[in-house]
Amino acid sequence: MHNDLVIVVVVVTALAFDFTNGFHDTGNAMATSIATGALGPRTAVAISGLLNLVGAFLSLSVAATIASGLVETKVVTPTVVFAGLTGAIIWNLATWYLGIPSSSSHALIGGVVGATLAAAGGSAVKWQGLASKVVIPAALSPAIAGLIAVTGTYLVYRISRNVADGIRGPGFRLAQIGSASMVSLAHGTNDAQKTMGIITMALIANGSLPAAASAPFWVILSAGLAISAGTYLGGWRVIRTLGKGLVEIESPQGMAAESSSAAVILLSSHFGYSLSTTQVATGSILGSGLARKGAEVRWRVAGRMATAWLVTLPAAAVVGAGSYALASAVGGTPGVLVDLALLMLAAGFIYARSRQTKVSAKNVNADWTGGVAPAAAVAGV
Amino acid sequence: MSSWINLTAIWQIVVVGLLAGAGLPALVATGLYALSLAGKGQVPASGSGTGRVAGVAVAALCFATVLAAIGYGIYLIVSSSH
Predict the structure, then answer these.
(1) What is the pTM of this model?
(2) Which of A31, A157, A338, B75 is in Cβ range 3.0-4.6 Å of A242 for a Cys bridge?
(3) ipTM
(4) CA geometry: angle at A22 spanning A16 and A28, to 5°?
């Protein structure tokens, strides 16, 4: 009975994480289309949400594997999974508040690794797996995506410099919508899987599913719906940083950046090498800014992102570990519920803070004045 | 080293990624350029009628290739997972 309550809490928390994953990452696909005006903000998030849902059903290959190469699965209990999720959610909300596109997968992995460390010590973490599957790909993702986006942007501008304006504008805007849709689809195939994997892992740890089970249909459906709903909500703060803050962007650049992102994300899952969606998208946008003459690249913004990326794993791990320590100090089901209450308090606090400098579909494209909050929103406090 | 960095996968991602991620946008640009030539009738030497037809044909070829590549990519994702 107790276990049942805990597993329900874990599943709901995992879906909540999936939801934050959705709105945190809307910008990866749609930020440049919104910034160039190829799509209206509301239309963009609706398309992206729908395609994330479709993507969640398209590819189901890696559903149960997210943590298996990173921690000893036999020490993973539903409480460990829950503590890991709290770390991931808090980090996702904090970076969203700051408008920083950080990796949701890193937050999730960091949280679970931290909770595992607190539960079973360093020997339960597969450090080499962590380095080869997470840390090294994280360094490579933006570089590979950036290289492809630089090449694509250069070629596109070179080839199209004599194209008549009447064809150039609408043509590239249409192509940009297509490429952004591909990124949304790729995101659904990749990121919804992580939550499916986490829920499945918790169900297996609880004995609700046999050891080698794949994700049941209700898990696939609810994970797909959660990420899709989150995407539709629109993480306007992150969208703003990616679309307006990082580089000045035009439609041809946006198309090149998104083509690079979509290709790299899909290829990396095809070849079984997990690159972070967010880092790929950021690298692509940066690359598209480097390759167009006269496009301003704001290195301060890029630097802030890179710092956040370095901190993501350890920060989520610290929260995950603390969360586990607290849950086990209180003990049993009450421990998990105490954690849950704290998580809801923290989430409520961050949300309340974000309302003070609100970024929404209305002001997402306001001129960049050095921070994620548009000048008018700050003045309006 | 190979247990730390999956060089084979990276190499494949970079090469195929360049073809798809940079090549397809370049094809779109080429298609738009061809359309532009056709629309403006700027093709030299060949009569403007022939130039227009050739431009539209090249553009159609470019866009069809792009769509086919995207379709193939989606097919690969779906087929590799079931």
Answers:
(1) 0.87
(2) A31
(3) 0.86
(4) 155
